[in-house]
Structures are given as structure tokens and as C-alpha cells.
Amino acid sequence: MMTVETRHPPDPASFAHMSSAELRGAFLVEGLFLAGKVNLVYSHVDRAVIGGAVPGNDSIMLESFRELAADYFTQRRELGVINIGGAGMVRIGSEEFSLANKEALYIGRENREVRFSSFDSTNPAQFFFVSYPAHAVYPCTKIDRAHVKAEELGTAAQANRRTINRLIIPASVASCQLTMGFTELAPGSVWNTMPAHTHARRSEIYLYFDLPEDGIVFHCMGLPRETRHLLVRNRQAVISPGWSTHFGVGTTNYSFVWAMGGENQEFSDMDMIPMKELV
Predict the structure, then answer these.
(1) Rounded CA separation 168/81 (Å)
(2) HSE of 11 in the Cβ direction (CA atoms, 13 Å)?
């Protein structure tokens, strides 16, 4: 079973006058991980598709839908997949890729069949994926934990010690516009993505996970002088347009997946915002 929701983004001027409920309706993605289902959000921010799949005893097929006007999902698209649950498998045609927790897979365009399955239905895989339009065909590539490009950043004094794990980046995996990875905050650290910045040449999708049931992340977004916040809980995602700053603080340490698409894939392409300019 598959569900699809379409989102149209507000412009920065409208954003400044939105209520909390309106902000959540525009930018917060809930309910991605439901047993036995594929749930998708089609966003008109860079035409991103955000999805979650939780296969049980049976595998789940990733299918096309009306808005794509395609014979199959990857006919004109690429996607990055990361498993945040139990061990599972992604089958692409006759090729099979097993993914343990926090392992990832790049899937290039023109792969007619993409199917998700779990090894153990009592501890199912939870596949999170983000897709963008693709102009060329690149090979499907698995990124296991042994080959992740990791970098330690931040300090305990600033409560932002974190490890950035780069999974799909130009230096290791060929893609059209997609880049993807995940960040893990150290115990005692709660701030992410500091210093604050924007990157107008690409949008970003965040998925927060590894939060306890009562944990919350205050995800800040908006123009630097017109910021708002979203209250985000475990396994919820945020759509971040290129014009929006994005940083957050949690009630405890946590992890988050980041995925970006746009005209520039360089990780360091950021427009920094001095802290004194945030309002």
C-alpha cells in the first residue's frame, strides 16, 4: 500500500505571517513509517519526493504516482535510501542490496523495479528515502558503515559535538544532484548545524531520529531576521527551502538524516549567517 501527499511551499513573505499549525502543514512531514506501507510526500521545493517504507512479512514495491507522469518511479529520478531500523534489503531488478542500520544505497534513474523487504518482521527495516529529478544514469551504489566519510565537529563547551557522516557525495558516489548523509550528536550535545547558514543553490530535507519517546527538537527556520520554529519528534522530517536558515536544539542528543538537491553538490557551499543577525 502506498500513500502520496503533495506540498506547495509558501514564499518568504507569506512565511512571516503563518501560524504554528500552518507552518507544520507546509514544512513538517509526519507519519512516514507505518508498518507494511510506503508513505510519500511530493514537495514542489526542487520537486523532491520524501518517503518512508516499513516492510513486514511481505516486500513492498516503490511505484510511480500521478504527479510523476512516469511509467515507473525512477524513470526520470534518482533516490538515496538509508535504513534507520532493523536489517533489510532493497531489490533493484534482479540485484539485491542488504542494508544494516545506518547503511545507505544510491539508486540511479531507469531502474524499473525497486522493492523493499525486512529480514525480520518483528524488527523491521525502516527505509527513509529522498528523490530528485535526474538528467543522467549512474550506477546503484551501496554505502556501508566501513566506507562512510566521517568528520568530527563542534565542542562540548558549545554543546554541539557531532559526527557528520557523508554517504552520497561527489567524492564517493556519482549522482545527478542528490547528496545525503546523517549527523550524530554526542551525549551532552544538543545543538546542530551551527553556525547558522542558508544555501540558496539547493534545498534540504531533515529527518530526525534516535530521539526518545518524550524527546523534542526545536527546528528553527525562516529568513535570518524572521525566524520561526517547528517542534519535531522522533522520525519526523522537515522540508527546508533554499531561502531558509536551518538549525536546531533538542532536549537530548539525537541523530538526523540530511539530504539535499539543487544546482550545486558541494557540501561546503553555504552562506553563513552571523549570530548577531538572527532575530
Answers:
(1) 10
(2) 1
Strands laid side by side in the 245-250 sheet: 191-192, 245-250, 217-223, 226-232
- pLDDT values of the chain reduced to their tens digit, one per residue, 279 residues: 899 999 998 999 999 999 999 999 999 999 999 999 999 999 999 999 999 999 999 999 999 999 999 999 999 999 999 999 999 999 999 999 999 999 999 999 999 999 999 999 999 999 999 999 999 999 999 999 887 888 999 999 999 999 999 999 998 999 999 999 999 999 999 999 877 777 777 789 999 999 999 999 999 999 888 899 999 999 999 999 989 989 999 999 999 999 999 776 776 777 777 777 677
Per the document, the length of the chain is: 279
DSSP symbol at 145: G
Domain layout of the chain by residue ranges:
2-277
Phi, then psi, of 38 in degrees rounded to 5: -110, 125
CATH 2.60.120.10 fits 2-277, yes or no: yes
Contact 126, 33 (CB under 8 A): yes
**pTM for the structure as a whole:** 0.94
One-letter amino acid at 181 equals G
